[in-house]
Each structure stands twice: as C-alpha cells, then as structure tokens.
Amino acid sequence: MLDEHDHRSLGQRLDLFHLQEEAPGMVFWHSRGYQLYRLIENRVRQQMQREGYSEVRTPQILAQPIWERSGHWENFRENMFQLADEGGWHHALKPVNCPGHIQLVQRMNPSYRDLPLRLGEFGLVHRSEPSGSLHGLFRLRQFTQDDGHIFCAESQMREEVFRFCRSLHAFYADFGFEHVEVAFSSRPAQRAGSDEVWDLAESLLLEAAQQAGLKCLMQPGQGAFYGPKLEFVLKDRLDRSWQCGTIQLDLVLPERFDLHYVDASGQKRRPMMLHRAMLGSLERFIGILLEHHGGALPAWLAPEQVVVAPVGEAAAGYAERFAAKLREVGCRVSVDERAESLSRKIVDSHQAGVPWLVIVGNREVEKNAVRLRRRDGEQRDLPWDEAVAALVAECRPAASA
C-alpha cells in the first residue's frame, strides 16, 4: 500500500497518470496530467526563449557509428535499447540528445559571429534501466529531458555558466522551491578524454562557479564520462534533497566529432560545449513537485484552477456564464452540475487539488456576485467583476507574474 503522500498515490487521486506492467518504466498521461506536463514545458520554453535558445527536434534512433564516436557505445551501451535493420546495421534509441545537436551544429558550419550558439530540445529519451530500479516517475525507461547545449568560445564560457546559474533561483522559486544547493562532480573512473583535457575542464568549470558566487559541495568521481558538472539540488518540504538542474563542461565531444567554428582571422577553432538542463527529467520533476506540495499545486500549475458549484437549479445558468467568463480570460475552469450537496462538492474539489471553488446560489444571483472559497477553507463574497479579477490574478502563470 502506497503512502497517501507518495507521488504515485497523488497521481491516482488527482487523475494525472498511471503506470502498468505492459509498459514498464513508461507513463500513461491522463488529460489532467498532460495539462500539468505542458504547463511545466511551457514555463521552461519561456525561459529558453528569454535566454536566446533555438528550439530543435532530433531523431529518436541513431546508427551505431554516431554512438561510437560520441563514446556512448563504449561507456553507456548497457543502458541503451539497441536494434538492427535488414542490412545488419546496429542502431539505438537515443538515451541523450547531445549527438543529435552536434549533427545540427556540424551542418551549420558556424563562425565566431554565431557564438554562443544555444540549442534546446524537449528530448524524449530511452534508457534500459533494470526492472528492479524502476520507481514511479523518479526512475523511468522513457522520459523527457529539458535539454540544452551551448557551443561557445572559451572567452564566452564563464558568462554562459553565470547566466545559467543566475536564472535558476527565480525559476525554481516559481515552483515553490526556495532552497537550492550546488555540487561539483569531477571525473569518473570510466571516462573519455585525456587527463590533460579533464584537468582543463575541471579547472575552468570550478573557476566559472566561483565567479558566479557558488559554494559547491565536492563530489569526486560523479561527473559524466565526457565532462565535469555542476548539479543543483532542491530541498522539499520534508527536507529531502533532489538533484534537478545541471550544467556540464564538455571538451571531449567537440574533439571527437571534430567540431569547429571560423574565427575573425578565418582560422578554424574548437568550440567548448556546455550541456545544461533546468529540470533534468520533466517526469521526475513532476513527481518531486507533487510530493513537495502534497498534491496541492500552486494555482498557476493546477490542471483545473477553478470549479464553479451552483446551488439549486436557478443558479445553473449563472454558474455557466461565470465559468465562460473565466475561460475567456484564460482560467482553467469547470462547472460541477452534479445533484450533490454543497459539502460533497467542496470535499471533491479539495480531493482533486482544485485551488478555488466558486459557490453560486440564489443570493449570489440576485446580487450579481459569487462566493470564493480557497482550498484552505478561507471564504469571501465578491461582486462578479471583482471576483473575476481576483481569480485571474491568482491563476496567472508564474512567468508573467
């Protein structure tokens, strides 16, 4: 039996998603859950647009030579779903998006004027995780990364790290996470690239972190096989730590793929590559978010923000008109027309995680008003226009607040 605060229980109670044996480690998103998924995706997309990323989309399946060149065939093959075509060529479902973005940059043939070049993708990836390690949304075989890669000159790298780090605190605060810790993960035992390359990458990333004013917990041996990384750790309401955002400095893949840009003198130069994500996995972040808020998501994130509950048949038309007005101004709203008691409707809206219940009866119809009931039980009576304005302010997306 799952604890009621477990994200899997919350997912069932709020009608967000389910998992089943026929698709191990993969999520069936219900309509309400996919609404939440898209709201988070849109918030990340707004951040990407503000920071100058070009959104791209790369193939799900790539042939073995690309994975060999990237180093994943040697260092990550046991975690990749592999398949072969009729010609005997081996392919793999992508576990990461980096090689695909590198293919795009190679086609762009950039000059120094194009740098820093920032690419972003909501990349659906697959990893062959052992069945015993699967755990709700926290550990999946199929998930979506809010992935981004920055290709830049060495002189631009520190500023790019600083820009990324500076934006994260406000971004996480929108979701209700105020406390962020940072860890520095250095070279693992199994890695690609020479010690000289790693020495340079680690020293440059540490220097950038210091310039950004970060105090890092050191995590020896926890870096990716291609480069060191900064990991951003969130604390939830139960004081648990969750690693979410990351930025990694990679000097290995640009060399392995022979990436270059043309400098001001016409010479070929090797760019640096930064791998970055704010959430890491959208699915995992949703699991963290549900447990952090106990299912009571902030109003801007709630799949259903308002339920209008008419009391008595005479109020039904009024309730529909009020709901239509809220939809017109961008609120996600439904009307509870069931022949149930008001107390039953209050309990059900609370169980569904709805932030606001709007109660309308004969008295409200006569006064052209409504009663607003917050999820915590606080109530107030407001005229129609004031109630609409109050709900719009409460339900406004965080990025535009």
UniProtKB/TrEMBL annotation:
One Pfam annotation, family name? tRNA-synt_2b
Q: Which GO terms describe its molecular function?
A: threonine-tRNA ligase activity
Q: What class of enzyme is it?
A: ligase
Q: Does the keyword Ion transport apply?
A: no
Instruction: From the UniProt record, list the reaction(s) this protein catalyses.
Output: tRNA(Thr) + L-threonine + ATP = L-threonyl-tRNA(Thr) + AMP + diphosphate + H(+)
Q: Does the keyword Ligase apply?
A: yes
Where, if anywhere, are coiled coils annotated? none
* Protein name in UniProt: Threonine--tRNA ligase
Q: Which organism is it from?
A: Archangium minus
* PROSITE patterns given in the database record: AA_TRNA_LIGASE_II (PS50862)
Stated family: Belongs to the class-II aminoacyl-tRNA synthetase family.
Query: What Enzyme Commission number(s) apply to this enzyme?
Result: 6.1.1.3
What the entry lists under SUPFAM superfamilies is as follows: Class II aaRS ABD-related, Class II aaRS and biotin synthetases
Name the InterPro entries on file. Answer: aa-tRNA-synt_IIb, aa-tRNA-synth_II, aa-tRNA-synth_II/BPL/LPL, Anticodon-bd, Anticodon-bd_dom_sf, Thr-tRNA-ligase_IIa, ThrRS_anticodon, ThrRS_core
Keyword terms, alphabetized: Aminoacyl-tRNA synthetase, ATP-binding, Cytoplasm, Ligase, Metal-binding, Nucleotide-binding, Protein biosynthesis, Zinc
Q: Where is the Aminoacyl-transfer RNA synthetases class-II family profile domain?
A: 6-298
